[in-house]
Design brief:
alpha+beta, single chain
Length: about 90
């Protein structure tokens, strides 16, 4: 688990998991926490790959925090899981 991004609005954490059952593919994804909405979403598979490519494109353009938040916000609209404090 590695925190990739944190702002006043969002937290993004990357999870990497080793391959299982002899599969050559590793598993993992990204958790996006929308602080203002109090919701989170976990992206994996093709959606996680799309997110990763979008972030890389942003990084290549030297973005502002607002640009990152706008991009992440486009995924947080999918979030349905409410945050639970433990």
């Amino acid at each position: 688990m590695q925190m990739l991004y944190q702002s006043d609005n969002f937290v993004v954490v990357q999870f990497d998991a080793p391959a299982v059952d002899g599969s050559p593919m590793a598993r993992g994804g990204f958790e996006i926490v929308d602080k203002s909405a109090g919701r989170e979403i976990y992206l994996e598979g093709l959606l996680a790959e799309h997110f990763k490519q979008g972030v890389q494109h942003l990084v290549d353009t030297n973005p502002t925090e607002e640009a990152f938040d706008e991009f992440i916000g486009s995924f947080s609209g999918l979030a349905q899981q409410p945050l639970a404090m433990h």
